[in-house]
Design brief:
Layout: H1 9-14, E1 22-30, H2 38-52, E2 56-65, E3 68-69, H3 70-75, E4 81-90, E5 93-101, E6 104-113, E7 122-131, E8 134-142, H4 150-167, E9 177-181, H5 189-194, E10 208-209, H6 210-214, E11 241-245, E12 256-262, E13 277-285
Parallel strand pairs: 1-2, 8-9
Antiparallel strand pairs: 1-13, 2-3, 2-5, 4-5, 6-7, 7-8, 9-11, 10-11, 12-13
């Protein structure tokens, strides 16, 4: 697998840059539950995490039931702490979101998201992380998937931003990071709301879309026909996976300085998932 951000040995050991402006790396990946050649995909996911060395990772479609814990399997040997939150059932098995952190997870909370009359159950997972630069509020989510469910995703992003404001108020808190599979393109109403371009009939919010702010200028496609696991579905290529951060603040914390698509190449001939991921470098202050 091609590394999408080079990380030197010192950065991997410390988890952030000790120089003029400290940084940390946040990533997201929908791991596609246990579909496809799971054992081979597991090796590819682990190799991607080992190579990229993100400090905090949000995972979606993560199964957990007695005798089987995908978050634990993914993080084996990589030194991450884990928080997991249930969202729904996948073919009768509990599935949800997971947060992997290089640093200690102090507490976590699961916030149900509105289903808008659909048959999908979704949630937001929150973890308070004891990072070297302060308490990091980190959120991971996965929104309704159908193209026609934009109105439901609008309800869901409003619930997300309300929860973020409650758990990480602007005064004093480190800028919260929100990652996940939003199943919506950047110009959709729900993503324009996250980016401060519409209030959806109410107050505006603002979260920096890390790839939009600090990406390489490409489309940043994360659901692509290039991926043999996604190609048979024949859906349009688009960017639907995001790293958001409510920053920078007055102390220059929470500015995305680099963002790239990752998990976008095969390892030993196998792609990690039907999605590609996103990894971003974010400032943590001086």
């Amino acid at each position: 697998m091609r590394a999408c951000i080079e990380a030197g040995p010192e950065a991997a050991e410390t988890g952030y840059n000790e120089h003029a402006m400290r940084t940390f790396r946040a990533a997201t990946l929908n791991i596609w539950s246990r579909f496809g050649p799971w054992e081979e995909r597991l090796g590819a996911i682990r190799e991607g995490l080992r190579t990229l060395a993100p400090d905090v990772v949000g995972l979606q479609e993560v199964l957990r039931f007695p005798g089987f814990d995908q978050a634990e399997l993914v993080s084996t040997g990589l030194g991450y702490e884990i928080a997991w939150g249930r969202a729904s059932e996948n073919h009768g098995f509990p599935t949800g979101n997971a947060i992997l952190s290089r640093w200690r997870i102090l507490r976590s909370e699961v916030i149900p998201l509105p289903h808008g009359g659909s048959d999908e159950d979704r949630s937001l997972l929150y973890a308070e992380i004891d990072a070297p630069f302060g308490r990091l509020p980190f959120f991971c989510t996965h929104l309704n998937w159908k193209f026609s469910h934009g109105h439901i995703r609008c309800l869901q992003v409003k619930t997300i931003t309300d929860a973020v404001m409650r758990l990480a108020p602007i005064d004093g808190a480190f800028p919260p990071v929100v990652v996940g599979d939003f199943n919506a393109e950047p110009e959709s109403d729900e993503m324009r709301y996250m980016r401060g371009l519409t209030g959806l009939g109410g107050p505006y919010v603002y979260f920096a879309d890390a790839f939009h702010v600090a990406g390489d200028g490409s489309a940043g496609t994360t659901f692509s026909k290039k991926n043999p696991f996604a190609e048979p579905i024949r859906e349009p290529e688009r960017r639907i996976d995001y790293v958001f951060v409510r920053g920078p603040d007055d102390a220059q914390r929470g500015e995305p300085t680099e963002a790239r698509v990752c998990f976008d190449e095969p390892f030993d001939g196998v792609f990690p998932s039907d999605h590609f991921g996103v990894i971003a470098t974010i400032t943590a202050g001086r």
